[in-house]
Amino acid sequence: MLEKLVSAILYILPAYVANGSPVVVVRLIGKATPMDLGAKAWDGRRILGDGKTFEGFFSGIALGSIVGLILIALGNPASYRSILEPLILSLGAMLGDILGSFIKRRLGLKRGQPAPGMDQLGFVVCALIISFAIYGLPDWFDSLTVIILLLVTAYLHLGTNYLAYLLGLKSEPY
Ligand code: CTP
Ligand code: MG
Question: Among 55, 57, 59, which Cα is nearest to 31's?
Fold first, then answer.
């Protein structure tokens, strides 16, 4: 049981890194370009908002992929089936994050306003769906492990975001 959970967390690690890096990278480079280029949707609100930038998107995918490649080089304890699997997980995480912002804007939530559940889990759910669709179910997969993985992710996300807030990287603690 614990072994499966450890495998699951190692497996999803590129998605965590992809999701967490943009806030740091964008802070380091200072200025970043919103992916919607400031454009508004049919409802008059921003398509995605200023929180989704090209720099964040690509740095997230790059850093997530690198962490996955390091895992593979260390003996592949995450049991990736392809050298591209970490890239797919990172891409899935960033797309899930974008989809979340798109939904938040349509609901009238401003950039940075919380959407409990979606903010913490949307990126992981999206990463898993896309990687499972391409590579099939991994060895560690069973419903209980997935549920515990989602719970661990939600708490980790809340914890790391609070830390980013304490470090002055984010203006909201969630
Ligand atoms: N970020 C980015 N590009 C991305 C994703 C994130 O630049 N594709 C950066 C932004 O600086 C963003 C921060 O990481 O503010 C935190 O990400 P997130 O919490 O997803 O964005 P929010 O600002 O909360 O915006 P939203 O309400 O759209 O989720
Ligand atoms: Mg947020």
Answer: 55
pLDDT tens for each residue of 94-138: 999 999 999 999 999 999 999 999 999 999 999 999 999 999 999
The residues of the chain scoring below 70 in pLDDT are none
What does pTM read for this prediction? 0.96
Residues having CB closer than 6 A to ligand 1 are 22-23, 26, 32, 49, 51-53, 56-57, 94, 97, 101, 104, 111-113
Instruction: Report the candidate in 142, 163, 135 with the shortest Cα–Cα distance to residue 8.
Output: 142
Q: CB-hemisphere CA count at 13 Å for 120?
A: 18
Cα 16 to middle of ligand 1, angstroms? 14
In the chain, where are the structural domains located? 2-166
